[in-house]
């Protein structure tokens, strides 16, 4: 079993934007901070994780959750550009506060899942479908979201901050959905994946850019157990009574095969795009 301990070396500076939540609000959930390989989350764990629901582009048939994302403030969801530029599927709405895709609400005392339409899909202008470079996008929701125990925003890192050390265990959460269209789990799951340095990663995958991160390459522990477009997060000792909080290091982008030993998954590095994120959320 694998455990992600809070990184006590991380000092997460607040970003200079009134559009982002205060550090006392973001990156907090109510339950255990232990992350294992491919197990169910508790209902209120990783409450920033968002399910993206699609339909066939040529019909009105709902095909379910195909990608994930993360709530970064009351109006915007962060995801991968490849999730919204598929020719086969069309994104119709997001599901917030989701845990079990087959029930709503998920428990007797749980709030109903919030199903929210999208008014604008904004891919990074330099996204490349072939290389998956700049694989990042923002979704503007049709209304502001109210935070609850089951819906909270994730913290964002300072711009161009250093990547975690090789071997650091980070967490991915989601419903096991990938861009090939298969939903692996009805219940939100979590998995820990070790960071692989770009230098090491380039020996097997090649052409890894400074705006990307590698993680995984361990049998049975990969981003396919989370969501394509979903968040890769790291924990730190926060400002709220010294409790563990989380911030987003990466966005699930692509890889060779799920859980293939020696072949880590590739993630978009969020800290490389802070200026672009702030520009979008402050001008839209």
Automatic annotation (TrEMBL):
SMART domains: Tryp_SPc. Transmembrane segments: none annotated. GO terms for biological process: proteolysis. It holds the Pfam family Trypsin. Keywords: Disulfide bond, Hydrolase, Protease, Serine protease. GO terms for molecular function: serine-type endopeptidase activity. The keyword Disulfide bond applies. It comes from the Eukaryota. The keyword Hydrolase applies. Residues 35-282 form the Peptidase S1 domain. Belongs to the peptidase S1 family. CLIP subfamily. This is Peptidase S1 domain-containing protein. It comes from Ignelater luminosus (Cucubano).
């Amino acid at each position: 079993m694998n455990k992600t301990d809070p990184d006590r070396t991380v000092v997460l500076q607040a970003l200079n934007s009134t559009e982002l939540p205060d550090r006392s609000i973001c990156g907090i959930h109510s339950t255990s901070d232990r992350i294992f390989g491919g197990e169910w989350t508790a209902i209120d764990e990783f409450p920033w994780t968002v399910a993206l629901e699609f339909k066939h582009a040529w019909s009105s048939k709902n095909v379910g959750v195909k990608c994930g994302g993360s709530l970064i403030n009351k109006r915007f969801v962060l995801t991968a550009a490849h999730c919204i530029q598929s020719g086969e599927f069309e994104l119709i709405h997001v599901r917030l506060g989701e845990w079990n895709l087959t029930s709503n609400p998920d428990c007797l005392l749980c709030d109903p899942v919030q199903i929210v339409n999208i008014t604008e899909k904004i891919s990074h202008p330099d996204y490349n479908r072939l290389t998956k470079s700049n694989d990042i996008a923002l979704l503007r929701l049709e209304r502001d979201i109210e935070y609850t125990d089951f819906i909270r925003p994730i913290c964002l890192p300072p711009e161009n901050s250093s990547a975690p050390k090789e071997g650091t265990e980070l967490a991915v959460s989601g419903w096991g959905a990938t861009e090939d269209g298969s939903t692996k789990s009805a219940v939100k799951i979590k998995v820990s994946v070790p960071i692989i340095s770009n230098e090491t990663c380039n020996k097997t995958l090649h052409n890894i850019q400074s705006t990307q991160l590698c993680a995984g390459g361990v049998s049975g522990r990969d981003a396919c157990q989370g969501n394509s477009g979903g968040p890769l997060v790291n924990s730190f000792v926060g400002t709220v009574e010294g409790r563990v909080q989380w911030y987003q290091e990466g966005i699930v982008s692509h890889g060779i095969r799920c859980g293939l030993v020696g072949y880590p998954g590739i993630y978009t590095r969020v800290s490389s795009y802070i200026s672009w994120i702030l520009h979008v959320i402050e001008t839209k």
